[in-house]
Amino acid sequence: MTPARPTTPPDPRPDPDPRPDADVRAVFARAAAEVVPGPLPLAAVRRAGRARRRRRTTALSAGSVLAVATAVAAVVVLTPVLPSPQAGGPARVAVPPAVVPTSSPPVRTSATPRPPAPTPVRTVASGERVDAGKGWRVWLTAAGKHWTGPDGYENTRSVTDGNVDLGAPGVSHQSEGGPKGAFHSGLYYGTRSAGRVELRNAEGRTAVATLLELPGRPGWGVWYAHTGPGMGEVATVLYDRAGKVLSELPLLRGATGPDRHGGASGGRPRPVG
Predict the structure, then answer these.
(1) 268 vs 103, more confident
(2) Domains in the chain, ordered, with CATH?
(3) Contacts for 185 with CB less than 8 Å, ≥ 6 apart
(4) Element (H, E) at 256
């Protein structure tokens, strides 16, 4: 005998709503319909719009002013050019703008002449014959200066006969020659810092002498120089090694002339400074 099949109990849960989304939408629609919207803030919106327009206008105005200033500056630095000449008239040339000085012009002063450079002093032994050129020879001894010319005649200038004051700066001058030129020589004394003996004529032409001294710097020495034709009268100037004038003799003819020095035979040399 076949057993009976048990009966399945019915499902106690009811069937779900086939359209739940439709009910949710209906609920939200009813809630939205009950909301009353507030008034639109038109005045505040207008104020904000006006403020934005004012800011934009201000920025555009500042940019325009800057552009105009730049253009004006560029026009100022340009060189002005005259308009084109009329037909038939002469062509005009562009004129640069006038320059206004911003400071006073410098004051010109006369240039200070440079002092003459010192001449090296040659030290020679007593009695040493020095070839002075063109047949002339010069030598020194404790008694003074000695020289001889092309004719062989010997001359002497003493520093011990009392006619030379070795205690003060001075210079003497002897010259022998003719129209073709002259030989000049002399003593310088009263200083141990002799730097230069110079001959100068009225036109400013100069001749620099050679300086000789005995060993030990006795405080005196001998100078000699040659001048060519046309030199004429010359002045004799003694400088120290710093370029200061120690003594000066006025102009003397370039040909054979007297012995001039700080003693009885020629008058006192004119010390300077």
Answers:
(1) 103
(2) 121-252 (2.60.40)
(3) 132, 138, 145, 147, 173, 174, 175, 222, 223, 224, 225
(4) none
